């Protein structure tokens, strides 16, 4: 069986789609998840979870209040604590993330930041003695931690953080203090009610000198009572657009004393007498952010996939309207507009995940290099992940919203669950650096690269920047996907140079560097987007080229074709400077035929992600495809339907109507 999702009793329309698939979905899962071993482990973990009934949702998330969501996730975490070792290799981050996604979903929980930022901060920033003291406890989950950096008044501009950590050699202590309301830490996930420790980022002050943002390990709550310690004000910031299973919080310090060895001292140090040793790279303290950014292409790709699993399966069972055959309505997936809405996003999701694998590996390597004293790779990875997180989160948001609309009215219902996926995913445009700001970080690197070329130092260009020094050449669009890469290279190069020239000219005209930068900023962000999209396209093609299995490679080439045609058309205004409008018309025709070619494999391509019904939490997107029965059952379970007459009818509507009758 090529599509391993085929089951007796499933909706025949979905079974028909799965029969059409031309490749083995288990083999595709191995490509998606980086190895056959991990793809198998994912399935095993999912299977093991299903054998522990206490790990099942006690009711649909959509019917839970915020308090119920928080309580439910804590309940499951306590059940999980009995089963960690039996379910996963606890040293394997990907296995742990899969387990969290399955059991806890995407709406957040008490450990949301513990694994993703608290432990990574200790790993990257704590010295050996500090790791000895805290890392084991954190890994065993004896303590719960979060990452408290953003303040009410400042998230982006870390140099303006107001929370101070002032060192006093006389007592060998820091005093943490929140001098104003705007200095309150505001937003950190799992801070409000769950965490008893935090890595707090504060401005280090020694003898009136401000050394800027540094990380500190801070105990927030009593380990026995969980009450906030004296000098600490902590709480939940209230409901959000989504992610309401998490207690994003606020935190204030009132002259809170912290022993000297609680500053994380792997890279910078404060000696007993107050002597400060600066880190080997000024931004080394920002590593936890780079770690999360390096994960985001993968995580956002998976968010988009979840929405696409729902929309593609639904589109294969939803019948509406007619094409040739007037005796039976067609599956809406057969409409070209539906394919155009969904298939380019499938391609992007695959591309994002392949990019994610690369950046996760780059971060892991960087961590090793930095431990060995080599910080030379930091700027490259910072630039790459700044651009990537921005493009990927934005396009994921677009893709999920299109998936919702592709499900018509039912997409708008919480039964689809797409609105929650959207709400959580779209947060990525803001967290880990607001997208515009991060595009501008990449732009700094691009401008510097052009300056290297201009001054005859092209040999010093960083990885992936060589194309900036190359001349424009003729593009032969019949030569395959590489020709489309060339179009992107031309467009990105032109835009990067144009934005840099504008910036330089404004400075030459007398504007200060910062004002000239601001007046070039829109052009600079466009340059960053094009550069990043070029990287995504190149990575996608490179990864597909490396595949040896013929049937897998064939369908992925079909997907690459959808991608390259769609992407070039999507940057039409830039591409037009390098290809003619007649060539664009021919790309358009190729896009439509590539959608046709992909159509029979659409369901298998999204089934290959092997996202379980439990993880998907969508009534509309369930594997069995019995959409209408499932939808009706779900609606009947709504709390509003547990009684025929609501108290509010008796209290308000009925008296109102009765009065009107008099
Ligand atoms: C994503 C997590 C997924 C987890 C998955 C877990 C489970 C899966 C299950 C389900 C999923 C469920 C839910 C997921 C949903 C919710 C999310 C959960 C967690 C979210 C976590 C969010 C946490 C946060 O947001 S933490 C706070 C983040 N804050 C920021 O990012 C602040 C942004 N600001 C900055 O980074 C900096 O201020 C700055 C903009 C970079 C500027 O810094 P500054 O010091 O002012 O420097 P300047 O601009 O002057 O540049 C000088 C120089 O330095 C270079 N530089 C800057 N940064 C770096 C760096 N990091 N490395 C190297 N070099 C750097 C810069 O380029 C300049 O160089 P040059 O002078 O031009 O050469
Ligand atoms: C779901 C979620 C989870 C979060 N989790 C955490 C967490 O665990 N820990 C934590 O510490 N923080 C967390 N945050 C906070 C988050 O990191 C910040 O909100 C984020 O970095 C953006 O900063 P800001 O809110 O200050 O935005 P602002 O910087 O105020 O952005 C407002 C606008 O100003 C623009 N802008 C700002 N500066 C510039 C500039 N220099 N150039 C051009 N435009 C600019 C932005 O582009 C944006 O349009 C979380 C946020 C969210 C939404």
From TrEMBL:
Metabolic or biological pathway = Lipid metabolism; peroxisomal fatty acid beta-oxidation
Q: Which UniProt keywords apply?
A: ATP-binding, FAD, Fatty acid metabolism, Flavoprotein, Lipid metabolism, Nucleotide-binding, Oxidoreductase, Peroxisome
Query: Where, by residue number, does FAD bind?
Result: 150, 189
Pfam families attached to this UniProt entry:
ACOX, ACOX_C_alpha1, Acyl-CoA_ox_N
- GO cellular-component terms in the record? peroxisome
The annotated active site, in chain numbering, is 432 (proton acceptor)
Say which family it is in. Belongs to the acyl-CoA oxidase family.
Drop me one GO molecular function for this one: FAD binding
Q: Where in the cell is it found?
A: Peroxisome
What cofactor does this one take?
FAD
Q: Name one GO biological process term.
A: ascaroside biosynthetic process
- The residues covered by the Acyl-CoA oxidase C-terminal domain are 481-657
Q: Which organism is it from?
A: Caenorhabditis remanei
Ranges for domain Acyl-CoA oxidase C-alpha1? 286-447
Q: What is this protein called?
A: Acyl-coenzyme A oxidase
The record, for Gene3D superfamilies, names: Acyl-CoA dehydrogenase/oxidase, N-terminal domain, Butyryl-CoA Dehydrogenase, subunit A, domain 2, Butyryl-CoA Dehydrogenase, subunit A, domain 3
Give residue ranges for domain Acyl-coenzyme A oxidase N-terminal.
24-144
């Amino acid at each position: 069986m090529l599509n391993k999702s085929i089951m007796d009793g499933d909706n025949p329309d979905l079974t028909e789609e799965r029969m059409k698939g031309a490749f083995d979905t288990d083999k595709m899962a191995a490509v998606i998840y980086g190895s056959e071993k991990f793809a198998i482990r994912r399935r095993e973990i999912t299977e093991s979870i299903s054998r522990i009934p206490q790990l099942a949702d006690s009711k649909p998330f959509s019917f839970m209040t915020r308090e119920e969501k928080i309580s439910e996730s804590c309940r499951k975490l306590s059940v999980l604590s009995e089963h960690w070792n039996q379910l996963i290799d606890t040293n394997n981050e990907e296995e742990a993330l899969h387990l969290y996604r399955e059991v806890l979903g995407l709406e957040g929980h008490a450990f949301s930041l513990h694994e993703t930022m608290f432990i990574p901060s200790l790993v990257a920033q704590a010295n050996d003695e500090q790791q000895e003291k805290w890392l084991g406890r954190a890994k065993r989950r004896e303590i719960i931690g979060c990452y408290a950096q953003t303040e009410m008044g400042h998230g982006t501009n870390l140099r303006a953080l107001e929370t101070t950590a002032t060192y006093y050699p006389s007592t060998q202590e820091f005093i943490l203090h929140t001098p104003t309301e705007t200095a309150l830490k505001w937003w950190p996930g799992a801070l409000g009610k769950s965490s008893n420790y935090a890595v707090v980022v504060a401005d280090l002050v020694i003898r009136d000198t401000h050394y800027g943002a540094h990380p500190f390990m801070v105990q927030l709550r009593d380990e026995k009572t969980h009450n906030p310690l004296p000098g600490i004000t902590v709480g939940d910031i209230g409901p959000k657009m989504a992610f309401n299973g998490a207690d994003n919080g606020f935190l204030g310090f009132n002259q809170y004393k912290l022993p000297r060895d609680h500053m994380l001292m792997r890279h910078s140090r404060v000696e007993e007498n107050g002597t400060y040793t600066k880190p080997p790279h000024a931004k080394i303290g920002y590593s936890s952010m780079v770690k999360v950014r390096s994960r985001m292409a993968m995580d956002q790709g998976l968010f988009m996939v979840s929405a696409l699993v729902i929309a593609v399966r639904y589109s294969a069972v939803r019948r509406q309207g007619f094409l040739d055959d007037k005796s039976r309505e067609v599956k809406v997936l057969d409409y070209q507009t539906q394919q155009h809405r969904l298939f380019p996003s499938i391609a992007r999701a695959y591309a994002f995940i392949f990019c994610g694998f690369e950046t996760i590996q780059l971060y892991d390597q960087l961590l090793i290099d930095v431990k060995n004293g080599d910080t030379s790779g930091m700027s490259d990875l910072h630039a790459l992940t700044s651009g990537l997180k921005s493009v990927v989160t934005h396009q994921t948001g677009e893709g999920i919203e299109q998936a919702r609309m592709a499900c018509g009215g039912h997409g708008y219902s919480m039964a689809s669950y797409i609105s929650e996926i959207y709400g959580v995913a779209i947060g990525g445009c803001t967290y880990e650096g607001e997208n515009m700001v991060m595009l501008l970080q990449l732009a700094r690197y691009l401008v510097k690269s052009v300056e290297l070329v201009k001054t005859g130092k092209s040999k010093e260009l960083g990885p992936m920047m060589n194309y900036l020094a190359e001349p424009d050449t003729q593009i032969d669009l019949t030569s395959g996907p590489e020709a489309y890469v060339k179009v992107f290279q031309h467009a990105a190069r032109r835009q990067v140079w144009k934005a840099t020239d504008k910036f330089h000219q404004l400075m030459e005209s007398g504007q200060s560097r910062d004002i000239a930068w601001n007046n070039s900023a829109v052009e600079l962000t466009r340059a960053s987007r094009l550069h990043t999209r070029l990287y995504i396209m190149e990575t996608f093609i490179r990864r597909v080229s490396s595949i040896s299995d013929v049937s897998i490679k064939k369908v992925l080439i079909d997907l690459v074709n959808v991608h390259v045609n769609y992407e070039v058309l999507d940057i039409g205004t830039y591409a037009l400077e390098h290809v003619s409008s007649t060539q664009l018309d021919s790309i358009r025709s190729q896009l439509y035929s590539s959608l046709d070619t992909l159509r029979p494999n659409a369901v298998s391509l999204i089934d290959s992600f092997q996202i379980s019904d439990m993880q998907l939490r969508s009534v509309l997107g369930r594997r069995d495809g019995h959409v209408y029965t499932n939808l009706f059952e779900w609606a009947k379970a709504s709390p509003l339907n547990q009684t025929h007459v609501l108290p509010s009818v008796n209290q308000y509507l009925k008296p109102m109507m009765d009065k009107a009758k008099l």
